[in-house]
């Protein structure tokens, strides 16, 4: 893989394992030594919800994976993405207090949502599961890290009990249905669960809902040098289009980093 090049020269640039900690510095994290990390926003107590960002690896044609059935292997992963990029993704996981995904992501991949290396502390894992439909045998309910399952008040009591028996913490956000009240959940994650910095990995329905609710402080995209194709392939944002039923959300480009053949692009609200 070609050497990493940065779009802008900066004095505060640190490199480790072929990727740059400049990305994490600009993501609102200060490093003084490998074990000492604090978040700038926490010092002033100005946020009532976690600082939240979306992180997605996307192909040149705007896809994140082919459409798959539960349990079917995803070709977009370590076998296709360069090790340096996987290391960077792992570092981002290590930098947050929590990682959030929707139920479908768990049903498709049965992911553990833990660090890929043994270095660092696993963040808390949050699953949006309004009606507590997740299988009690899901690997994300293992004891490697705390798991928070967000449900609505309509989640069947017996299903909730089975998930709780596996050690998960249940957070109720929303009165009815399959879709969790995200604004309420963000406040509870911050105030009750101690999550100050949150990364959302998917899926497309979750990203659509988070964008619609104005809950992303950043959208981070890793543009990968391959093409997936297919009209039914999955895109980063799914479900209904924002137009014509509403206003198309706009963002402004914050920075771009060139990492060999990859682009790491960060947008912020307010385009």
Task: Describe the model.
With 271 residues, the protein is of the alpha/beta class. It has a single domain (14-269), classed as Dihydrofolate Reductase, subunit A (3-Layer(aba) Sandwich). It has seven helices and 14 strands. The strands form three sheets. A ten-stranded mixed beta sheet has the order 1-13-14-12-6-11-7-8-9-10, with helices on both faces. A two-stranded antiparallel ribbon has the order 2-3. Strands 4-5 form a two-stranded antiparallel ribbon. A hairpin with a 2-residue loop joins strand 13 and strand 14 (262-269). It is globular.
Estimate the helix proportion, in percent.
10-25%
Lateral strand order in the biggest sheet: 1-13-14-12-6-11-7-8-9-10
Low-confidence stretches: 1-21, 24-45
Number of strands: 14
Shape: globular
Helix and strand composition category: alpha/beta
Q: How many independent structural domains?
A: 1
Computed over alpha carbons, the radius of gyration is 18 Å
Order of H and E elements: EEEHEEHEHEHEEHEHEHEEE
For the record, what is the CATH homologous superfamily label? Dihydrofolate Reductase, subunit A
The chain-level mean pLDDT equals 84
Q: Into which percentage range does the β-strand content fall?
A: 25-35%
> Helix segment count?
7
CATH architecture title: 3-Layer(aba) Sandwich
Distance between the termini: 33 Å
Kindly provide the name of the CATH class: Alpha Beta
Summarize the biggest pleated sheet: 10 strands, mixed
